[in-house]
Amino acid sequence: MTADVLALRRSPLHGTGFGLAAPGLTMAEEPFRSLVEVRSPAAPAGELVWRLGPDWWLVDGPPAPVVALEVPLAGELRAAGGVATDVSAHRTTLVLTGPHAATLIAHGCPIDLSIVPVGGCVQGTLAGAQVALGRTGPDSLRVYVRAAFARHLATWLSDAATPYVE
Amino acid sequence: MIRVPCPHCGDRDETEFHYGGEAGVAYPADPSALDDAAWASYLFVRSNPRGWLRERWFHGAGCRRWFNLERHTVTDEIRSPSEMRPQ
Amino acid sequence: MSRRLDTGGSRIDRSRPVTVTVDGLEIEAYAGDTLASAMLAADLPLVGRGIYSGRPRGLVGVGAEEPNAWVQVLSRGGEPMVQATLLDVYDGLAVELLAGRGRLVAEPDSTRHDTLFSHWEVVVVGGGASGRRAAAAASPEGRVLLLDDGPAVAPLDGVTTWARTTATGLYGHGRLVAVERRTDGDRLHHLQCGRVVLATGAQERGLVFEDDDRPGVMLAGAAASYVERYGVLPGERAVVWVAHDPGLRAAVALADAGVEVLAVLDVRDRIAEPYADALSARDIPVHLGAEVTGTSGDDRLSRVHTSAGDLDADLLAVSGGRNPAVQLWSHPGGRTRWSDEVAGFVPVTGPGDRVTVVGAAAGEPAHRSYLPPATWFRSSTGDPERIFLDPHRDATLHDLQRAHTAGLTSVEHVKRFTTIGTGADQGRGAGVLTVGVLAQQLGRPVGEVGTTTYRPPYLPLSFGLLAGRNRGELSDPVRLSQLHDRVAHAPMEDVGQWKRPWYFPGAEESLDEAVAREVRAVRTGVGMMDASTLGKILLQGRDVGVLLDRVYTNLFSTLNVGKVRYGVMCGPDGMVVDDGTTARLSETEWLMSTTTGNAAAVLDALEEWHQTEWPELDVTMTSVTDQWSVVAVAGPLSRDVVAALAPELDCSASAFGFMEWRSTTVAGIPARVMRISFSGELAFELNVPSWWGAALWDAVAQAGAPYGITPYGTETMHVLRAEKGFPIVGQDTDGTVTPHDLGMSWAVSRKKVDFIGKRSLARADAQRPDRRHLVGLVPVDGVSRIVEGSQLVAHGADLTAFPVPMAGHVTSAYPAGHDGRPFALALLDAGRDRLGEVLDAVDDLVPVPVRVTGPVSYDVEGTRRDG
Fold first, then answer.
1. Which residue in chain A has the smallest CA separation from C189?
2. Residue C17, domain member (yes or no)
3. Domain that holds residue C641
4. Hey, are the CB atoms on A12 and C482 less than 8 Å from each other?
5. CB contact under 8 A, C691 and A10
6. Within this chain, do residues C313 and C232 fall inside the same structural domain, yes or no?
7. Which Pfam families match (chain A) (predicted)?
């Protein structure tokens, strides 16, 4: 039953064919991540924890194979003392890697990503859509975009990538 | 285009912000105690100087925090960004 | 005949010939040529005609100062009004000459223009000697960019160099916009700069005299540049007339390239020895204190008239001085002043400490200038109607004199009166010249007259370039519900950035027919709609109730867990800004819904009140709009459908009351079910995490099939709610409407000490009995359609007796409600006191007699919501 219901989930970019694997640039959606916004003065524990603003964090965890109104990670973070909100289905995660990844974003985002260190995160607009951009490595970025904007952003990214695909 | 120095995120494009008008106009403690003129003054009357103005800005597309700064209304020069203090 | 020299031309590649078509005539050129150099090499003297006079016009300049050579490009999708001096040739380039005005291209532009943001510690504009020095000196400061509009920039250590890039606008706080010309489409660069160094050089300006617009009259420096850059001889027999040393240098260069220079005239009474020697060594006669008084020739120059006699020549090369290129300096507010030493306007007060200017742009003297330039603009003789100040606008000295006669003395006024400098070239050639001539006309010093204001862009930018990739489906972000694929076959309505299904037509069904069917289904059976787009905000904390009591007009803190309440929000001015329902999920968690278009504004307003006025409240807010997919199941049979889907849920009216919510599973999917209704019918809203949205839609459709469940769109939703008199904020309200005007006094608390808007609602004006009220309207004849936006006037009012007193307007109108008859909602002066009255709803001067009713036209007693 659980497996059947889990199989019914559709990520925002399901069926769009979004994705790219070119020498200097890869793009992919990582669907169904456990995403939780936390309000607390101190950083919550977690593998991928992004600071969105003062006392405001986004925790990105692996997909949870459970059928529930909210992902278990939200409950865990609440138990640890933060005010936690499940946004796993509110946002989806795009992963961009390669030397062209930051340039690709610079076609539609005025933020200087070069000053964002590994582990750092900025929120702003990319191609008119509000996003959080987290850096996981010198050439790798995670883009968190609201589900309703995901197709627009995916279309825009695929178009912007044209000069970097040979 | 101006660059707005968010105290939390650094310099960002104006398009990420909402402008909140003059700072220091506090919501009256007891609106019902004000006569119509005093209430209208709270709602509508601002100093509108030619020169330095202390303003409120909201980094809506970023950290979503309100903050204050001083802007010169002729040159757009900006100084003294600071976190919002209760008014 | 070719004017191409056998050797020379620093910018052309003679191994790569290209063919270009001008007005149907094929000409040969080389890669690296501009269209202007190609035409000059092919000896085509005509490059355009005067926009009003139709007079033939020839090439004057070599760059952005060119006033005449603006062409219509026909190849590669086409482009109107392109400056030939900045148009790089390519094989197959085809153009048409113009008379000062291009034509918009009807076909979509297929060129791939794009946009790029970048960040620099220092950007230097201009790759000349001063710019290179400044860039090299800045290189330790970090990311340093040197850009130049020429075809190549030599590499520089520690500096990024971009060629073919023109800075078009400098804005406050170090934002520079530049255009990079690329073979596959141009790129608009947004450069954020720590500081900007302007090394933009100076632009040569001409001199004016009778028939100065005759083809064959060129700027002297430009003429020499055609030799140096493109290996093209601009004439065979030349007269050179100058007011400064660089003009003399051009005369020498032209002579050395093989032009027979018949005479050099200098307005000054002496020239420096090195130039006197150089000209004398080439046997070129020099006339000091001399001027050109006119020209002759048919469509091109054949004779030059001078104060020293007439000369047969096919080239008149003139040079009146150099204007420091201060346009970018001026864009963000930099000031200039006239300098007699420079004979030009030079930068003075800066636009801020981020911007500096160096080299010729700063008024530094030109290389190998020995004597100061003359402040000299025009011949003392000639027919003012044949002395062209701005050939691009076909404006003459006569026009300027007319402006003066009309009493205009400010250069800004003269510009608007004569249109000088208002063409696509923005007066780059004519501007300072006009200021000089005006000063002479007024008998005032040039510096007193001053310049007009330079505004971006420095060069024209195409709309295609400004749009970049934001075109077609990318022109504005589109927001899609997570079950969009299930409803994508329906015609869509734009609601903000959302696409929402408008109606679900069956085969050959019209909008009206489909909506009538959908309305019938909800009123008599069951319907389903995607309600996911409503804004949703999760509020958490101990003080949420306190906050809600302050921002909603009614009381919320008393709401029990498990219940839902409808609320209205006002601005401080007492006018309605939003409405929606809020559910209490737990002691400390509340889920607020907002109208679809207002979600961001409501969240922003809540944050503003919390952060700036009541930071002591323990509340956090998180947008969760996209977290939830919502399917509304509405109609008398909805309970049967929901019962089938959610076997664990007791859906009976006694167990699950109106305005309550329950957690359960729907078709196995974890869900929150709310009993709220926007149609007046028994209804359930099923909320699931949005990755199950499509599955939920399928499950509802399947479970509802035995009951004939009917998908419905926004149009039917509007009809259903309008029959119940539920207003839509932003449609039935317009920022001047209070809750009382909407008949919602029941939602305005009298007990609360304060809420946002309360004080304004206490004003006498907010309590006037004759304010506009929300009312219903039906056509008197029962069949005539009422048009949304119609004005309401007295019945039988004379519509020709302007002004017709207006009593209100129609805010929502529909061709058919549940009874198949047209009806509408309206805002009407003192409307609630006028029930039964007959008025005319006027659209386009056609009156429709309407009767005023209450806003609720269906189920007035409200008995249907429990099924």
1. A107
2. yes
3. 484-532+628-720
4. yes
5. yes
6. yes
7. SoxG
Note whether A50 and A78 are same-domain residues: yes
Tell whether A9 is covered by a domain: no
> Along the 166 residues of chain A, how does pLDDT read in single tens digits?
688 999 999 999 999 999 999 999 999 999 999 999 999 999 999 989 999 999 999 999 999 999 999 999 999 999 999 999 999 999 999 999 999 999 999 999 999 999 999 999 999 999 999 999 999 999 999 999 999 999 999 999 999 999 999 7
Same-domain status, C519 and C664? yes
Q: Residue C57: which CATH number? A: 3.10.20.440
Contact residues on chain A for B59, CB-CB shorter than 8 A: 53
C window 349-378, beta carbon within 8 A of B:
352
Cα–Cα–Cα angle for C378, C380, C381, rounded to 5 degrees? 110
Is C758 touching B (CB cutoff 8 A)? Answer: yes
The two structure tokens encoding residue C243: 């007011």
- CB-nearest partner of A109 from C117, C671, C694: C117
Residues C521 and C634 in one domain: yes
Per-residue b or e along C232-260, where b marks 16 or more CB atoms closer than 10 Å to that residue's CB: bbbbebbbbbbbbbbbbbbbbbbbebebe
Q: How many angstroms separate the CA atoms of A48 and C480, rounded?
A: 28
A151 belongs to a structural domain: yes
> Of A87, A106, A125, which residue is a domain's last?
A87
- Chain C CA closest to residue B37: C763
| Count of domains observed in chain C | 5
Supply the range of the domain harboring residue A104. Answer: 17-31+90-166
Do C313 and C326 form a contact (C-beta atoms < 8 A)? Answer: no
Q: Is the Cβ pair A52, B16 closer than 8 Å?
A: no
**B65 → closest Cβ in A54, A111, A130:** A54
- Name the residue facing B76 among C172, C758, C762 (closest C-beta): C172
**C100 touches C390 (CB < 8 A):** no
d(CA C855, CA C832): 9
3-state class of C689 per DSSP? strand
pLDDT of residue A1: 67
Same domain, A27 and A109: yes
Question: Which residue carries 């018949």 as its tokens?
Answer: C262
Give the pair of three-digit tokens for residue A146: 């609201």
Q: Is A10 a domain residue?
A: no
Domain stop point among A69, A87, A105: A87
Instruction: Give the span between the Cα atoms of C36 and C44, in whole angstroms.
Output: 10
Question: Beta-strand (E) ranges in C384-441?
Answer: 388-390, 395-396
Which domains occur in chain B, in start order?
1-24+49-86 (3.30.2270.10)
In tens, the pLDDT along C36-89 reads 999 999 999 999 999 999 999 999 999 999 999 999 999 988 999 999 999 999
Per-residue pLDDT of C423-442, as tens digits, reads 888 888 889 999 999 999 99
Confidence check: pLDDT of B87 > 50 = no
Residues A65 and A140 reside in one and the same domain: no
C669 to chain A, any CB pair closer than 8 A? The answer is yes
ipTM: 0.98
Q: Provide DSSP, C549-579.
A: HHHBSS--TTPPTTBEEEEEEE-TTS-EEEE
Q: Which two tokens stand for residue C344?
A: 């030009």
| Same domain assignment for residues C704 and C772 | no
Kindly state whether residues A160 and A136 are assigned to the same domain. yes
> What's this model's pTM, rounded to 2 decimal places?
0.94
CATH label of the domain that carries residue A27:
3.30.1360.120
Given an 8 Å threshold on Cβ–Cβ distance, is C612 in contact with B84?
A: yes
Of C600, C607, C759, the CB nearest to B39: C759
On the question of a cis peptide bond just before residue C17, with omega within 30 degrees of 0, the verdict is: no
Cα–Cα–Cα angle for C168, C170, C176, rounded to 5 degrees: 80
- B41 vs C: CB within 8 A: no
A1 is a domain residue: no
Q: Is residue A96 domain-shared with residue A138, that is, in the same domain?
A: yes
